[in-house]
Design a protein that fits this description.
The protein has about 350 residues and is α/β, with parallel strands linked by helices. The chain has two domains: about 200 residues, Alpha-Beta Complex (Quinone Oxidoreductase, Chain A, domain 1); about 140 residues, NAD(P)-binding Rossmann-like Domain (Rossmann fold, 3-Layer(aba) Sandwich). The protein contains 13 helices and 15 strands. Helix 6 links the parallel strand 8 and strand 9. The chain starts with a strand and ends with a strand. The mean pLDDT is about 95.
């Protein structure tokens, strides 16, 4: 089969590799009908995730069809249309039993495209299939469903739910990429007074307006600190969500948070960021980090099915599998290409 293979920092290739095989009775082989590229894949290529080894098939998001199910699998069967989310769930360790699947210690968590081969391939082996796959309800498009594999629950869980966004609050999101936009979209479910988008690219700020931001700040031209201070009578934002993963954006997020406010870090960081405790110890702020659990997937699928979320509009490009290398180039240069999510179909 064809797959996008990581060959070391800065190196990738669409290659012919052996088809996957089930190695456990709880595994399932899924034929990938559509997949996509995540910002985390770019971090891997930049060398920010050294636990990913050369030769690994990248990708952790897919919509597909069950081709072969292990003998112990009961929840899905051959021919089922399924969502392959970014997190695998052993369902028996302490963290899984608490619903914190991203911290799984039983062989799950973020494994696809990380410690085992991923979804940027014609076929993928999914471990713990009974508790990790979701049958897609009728009426939900591939585009909508694919957004629930990672970015929508990441923005929602790690950004919005973890900070406890409440009605009337000011929410600032640093980074108007796909996950930042997902955070803006789902923050609107809780009726904040303002959603502020901060980014360096005008094309992304235009997208932010379409996803719920009523105020946009290009931080190459305007000081976000001055703008947020003016908007909030000098206090700062109630909630700040960092969705970039750079030291300077994390430090900015802390600066923009009001005393007693909450900061959520979503961005994948490959370098140390400074937390100025000498300035912050007195301000009573809460800083949260974390990996998505995907525990919100069933609720998000219901919101899609009832038309309360429009996730498919995050898809800006649709390409064939043969165009994978070009897709990575578009996604890497998103400030100019305008690429948000790119659907790739084998």
């Amino acid at each position: 089969m064809r797959a996008l293979v990581y060959q070391g920092p800065g190196q990738r290739a669409l290659s012919e590799v052996p088809d996957p095989e089930n190695t456990d009775d709880g595994d399932v082989i899924v034929r990938v009908d559509t997949t996509t590229i995540c910002g985390t894949d770019l971090h891997i290529l930049a060398g920010d995730v050294p636990s990913v080894r050369r030769g690994r098939i990248l990708g952790h998001e897919a919509v597909g069809t069950v081709e072969d199910a292990g003998g112990a699998v009961r929840s899905v069967g051959e021919g089922d249309r399924v969502l392959v989310p970014c997190i695998s769930v052993c369902a028996s360790c302490r963290y899984c039993r608490e619903g914190r699947y991203g911290q799984c210690r039983g062989g799950g968590g973020w494994v696809l495209g990380h410690t085992c081969d991923g979804t940027q391939a014609e076929y993928v082996r999914v471990p713990f299939a009974d508790t990790s796959l979701y049958r897609i309800p009728a009426g939900i498009s591939d585009e909508d469903a694919l957004m629930v594999a990672d970015i929508l629950p990441t923005g929602y869980e790690v950004g919005v739910l973890r900070t406890g966004v409440r009605p009337g609050e000011v929410v600032a999101v640093i980074g108007a990429g796909p996950v930042g936009l997902a955070a803006m979209m789902t923050a609107r479910l809780f009726s904040p007074s303002h959603v502020v988008a901060i980014d360096r690219a005008d094309v992304r700020l235009q997208a932010a307006r379409d996803f719920g931001a009523d105020i946009t700040i290009n931080n190459t031209a305007t000081s976000p600190l001055s703008a947020i201070t003016s908007l909030t009578d000098g206090l700062g934002a109630d909630v700040v969500i960092e969705a970039v993963g750079k030291p300077e954006t994390f430090e900015l997020a802390i600066q923009l948070t009001r005393p007693g406010g909450r900061t959520a870090n979503i961005g994948v960081h490959g370098k140390p960021a400074v937390f100025h405790l000498e300035d912050q110890w007195i301000r009573d702020i809460t800083v949260t980090t974390g990996q998505v659990d995907t525990s919100s997937v069933p609720a998000l699928l219901r919101l899609l099915a009832t038309g309360q979320l429009e996730a498919a509009k995050l898809v800006t490009h649709r390409l064939a599998f043969d165009d994978f290398e070009h897709a990575y180039d578009l996604f890497s240069d998103s400030a100019d290409s305008g690429a948000l999510k790119i659907m790739l179909t084998p």
